[in-house]
Batch of 2 targets.
Target 1
Amino acid sequence: MRVLLVEDEPGMTQFICQGLNEVSYAVDVAVDGCTGLDYALSSDYDALILDIMLPKMDGLQLLRKLRNEGITTPVLLLTARDEVDDRVQGLDAGADDYLAKPFAFPELLARLRALLRRPPLQLNPILQVADLEMDVANRVVHRDGKQIDLSPREFALLEYLMRHPRQILTRDQIMEHIWNADFYGESNVVDVYIGYLRRKIDQGVDKPLLHTVRGVGYRLSARQDEA
Ligand code: CA
């Protein structure tokens, strides 16, 4: 495991490096935010340990720049005080976890191990069911390589179906997730929009993806008979 530590206090740096070396993690150290950002952008680390209070560029700025560059390396933030503001700002800036100083080394190690077990953060998730693809961040849908134009409501409906592939979703479930309370009572609105969506994604193709489960609801699946 290769870890980047961005920390300006020599005592803290030594404490962390010594502990990580003992468990055979390779550690690079940057003593200010600008150097830390350079290192983080130029090497592929397994995790970053980032202090908030740093010279030149603080840890939160560094973190935002890193995430803006699309770097998804897990980040453990070190906060000087256990203050809610720091934690909230840190998590909003893209930190995966935080640890308030002072801390015991075994806790740092445990949190680091937990971060390394997590699947990488997906900044731009692409949802896929058979040859249907949705780029959620850029709001683009393709089927078999051809772009499909959807209204915002159709997009929301398809996103919900694509996030639950192969599951039977009842009209009530779909209603609750896609429409607000104003629409309750207009029970056929789900069927109407499923109809719109079906015309856009399934018309003229050999294998329809959007299936009606009679009396229950709908399912998005490459196979008609899949449970
Ligand atoms: Ca510091």
Note: The radius of gyration is 24 Å.
Target 2
Amino acid sequence: MKMDAKQLIAAAAAARESSVSPYSKFKVGAALLTRAGQIVGGANVESASYGLTCCAERVALFKALTSGEKDFMAIAVVARCAKGPMPCGACRQLLAEYAPKAKVFIADTAALHRVRAFTMKSLLPSAFVLVP
Ligand code: ZN
């Protein structure tokens, strides 16, 4: 499966349209690419109890995992902010556990062609994982 960052960024931008962010109005979209070539999108969901809010990355990851997907090649995350939205610590932990080999593509929706790429290892070195 060839990894197309632009296609994945476009899928994240499309997923962002489903953002449920009535409080912050800060819409975030994410798209995960499986090894089989499937793309699973997600968007952030906010709660009146702010702490319950869930990021786009985790929504996409939870959707993919609970659909039986286990092997991820990349994730794209987009929002309207300078240089694009970096994953928060919670998302980095979950991605390090379930998508450790995934490339992470980040872009600002105002400049989707300007994609920054990271490895999970660079975003969360020495991640906490339970070794079987
Ligand atoms: Zn997050």
Note: The helical segments are 5-16, 56-65, 89-98, 120-123.
